[in-house]
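Take a protein:
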Amino acid sequence: MNSLLFGLTMVAVLFLGYGMGVVVNYLADVLPQTRRLSPALCLRCQHPYPLMRYILLRPCTTCGAERPQRARVVQVVLPLLTLALWIWPPPDRLPLYMAWGLLLYFSAVLVMDWEYRVVLYEVSGAGALLGAIVGIWLNGWQATLLGGGLGFGIMLALYYLGEIFVRWAARRRGLESDEVALGFGDVTLSGVLGLMLGWPRIGIGLLFAILLGGLVSALYLVWLLMRRRYQPFAALPYTPFLLVAAAVLMYLA
């Protein structure tokens, strides 16, 4: 009986993870295009998707276009991560349902940033609400507000310092560059993560993200130099490092 209950629960968790994947794909398909919750459209012909065909990743009924590969990856990875959190739950003070909510939010932010290189203000606004709820539950309102303010403030200072450095380096080399060292979406996301982590853990999280980003960027630079494809001011998206740092700290709680 226990084995049967365990198996049924596992199947239910996998279905939950698949549903979370549908939500992440929907947000990634819709929000960067319309900035609101609107019907999902075929990316080729802009014809609305029937609900079940969208959920089951079926081709468009009008033009036959397949769903993007990203959608299939999300629909595999999210159920596995949801199941992993059920099997190896976070510490008791972070309830499982809250951990699943964070997984859903982090996944949506990561997919949209990876595909479109943008952290939408609408997404950060929703994250601020979620972050305040999680932060107050874990750390109390004072640490939550202080963490949110410092997370935003520290990254805002780094944002302006990065702009100054990029412009100075471009002028010194006689080049023009529209690259930015840090996107403003990373600043708003840091405020959201600050609410979730609270003070002083947001300081640890930002330091972890900066070190991890520096290490990966250095390895990426070496790889470009080895392939002789180096370009000045080449940059990696910074959002994944912020999310990884926050996820590790939230899981360890």
Residues 82 and 104 are 9 Å apart (CA to CA).
